[in-house]
Structure formats: C-alpha cells, structure tokens
Amino acid sequence: MSILEVKTILRNLLKSVLKLDSDTDTNDAIQVYVRDNLPMVAMGIYSKKKPECEFCKEVHGQRDVLCDLVIDKVDANSAEGCKKITVQQILDTMTTKRNLIFAVVISGKNHNYHELKHAYKKFQLKEGENEKGAAITLAECFEAFEEEETLTGTDQWYCRDCKEHRDIHKKLELYKIPKIMILHLRRFRSKRSASNGESGFFNLAYA
User: Fold this and answer.
1) 125 lies in a domain?
2) Residue range(s) defining the domain that contains residue 85
C-alpha cells in the first residue's frame, strides 16, 4: 500500500468534510509524518539518548514530535514519493524496533474547519470519549484506571536481565478495597509537564 493509498483512505473517511476531487488535491491537503517514538539507548552508566532516525538521519531531541517521512532522499508527501513509497518500505527502513505511528496533518484549505471539528468530536465519542458536560460514572473511572497501556518510546522499561530498554504492557487493578475508601477526582488531564483545564461532571450516585 502506497502513501497515496493511505491518504485516499483518509479522504474517503472524511469525504463529508474534505472537498478533494483529485489525487493531487488529496496529496497536497493530507500530509503524513512519522510520530517520533524512538527509544532511549544507554550511552554509558549514567547517560542515554535516542539513536539516529532512519528517515531524517538526525538524532531527535526529547521534545521532537513529528519527523519528515523521507526514504532515499524522496519525501513521502511529494508528488513522486506519495506513489512510490509504500508502508512495507517504511517498515523495512526502520532498523530500531518500535511501532510505526503515522501523524496526519490536514492543511487549512479545501475543507470547512467547523465541520472538521465536529467530525473529530464524533470520532472521539466513538473512541469512548464523553462530550463536555456529559456525566462520567465512577465505574467508567475505574475501567479507565484498569486499562492496559503500552510503555514505548521514551517511556520504555529498563530490563535488568537483558540490560536494555524494552516495550512493556502496564496494567493496574484494584485487588481489595477497604470498607471506607476516599477518592480524589481530578478535573484535569495530565500532559507531561502541563495540565489541560477541561472539566467534566461526575455522576456520584453510587451505592
């Protein structure tokens, strides 16, 4: 599957929002990048850094998020690269073991921003998100707390046996609770060193 085919799938998913009539318009409006999730590699006892990126041939910093998708000096978002570069070719280029995460950026033309925002909110709801102001039950909070997550990229776990960082699955569960349990409900979403002030309502009608 080529990058253009990936973009075409995205165009079809958002056809009610994106007004794209040709492959050229699709390639120009939908830009595909690689999400930086390169793991940290130990350089000594007390230091570690990321390896060189296979696409941009540079060492990403801690705050780098997106990387240009370039293979053999051909940009995947160019007229030539979108047809030539395939997903399999991208996977074959990745020498550092990690998941391939695409980051999609839609340009500010050829679509209605308000319609796009509405479509994104509908997509969030399908993924289990609540609309602002919707009630969130304690059961949903416990379910979210116990969801399994994968620690990858800069969050990899250091294995003392094999002496290297590895992707791991992390899962927390409530095994036993006391007769009286105090819950601290936060109204903010944590984003690394910053917090998002979006608040919601909690349905506390709990027996």
Assistant:
1) no
2) 3-119
First to last CA, the chain: 52
DSSP 2: B
| Residue predicted with more confidence, 16 or 123 | 16
Q: Is the dihedral of CA 162, 163, 166, 172 positive or negative?
A: positive
DSSP 197: -
* pLDDT tens profile 6-18: 999 988 887 777 7
Encoding tokens for residue 68? 């240009």
Q: 170-176: which pairs have CB atoms within 8 A and are 24 or more residues apart? A: 171/146, 171/147, 172/145, 172/146, 173/146, 174/142, 174/145, 174/146
Residue 21 is assigned to a structural domain of this protein: yes
- Are residues 181 and 91 part of one domain? no
Judge whether residue 84 has pLDDT over 80.
yes
- 14 and 50 belong to one structural domain: yes
- For residues 142 and 179, membership in a common domain is answered with yes
**Alpha-carbon dihedral 106, 109, 111, 112, rounded to 10 degrees:** 110
**Local structure of residue 133 (DSSP, 8 states):** T
Asked whether residue 126 is domain-assigned, the answer is no
Using pLDDT thresholds of 50, 70 and 90, give the confidence band for residue 147: confident
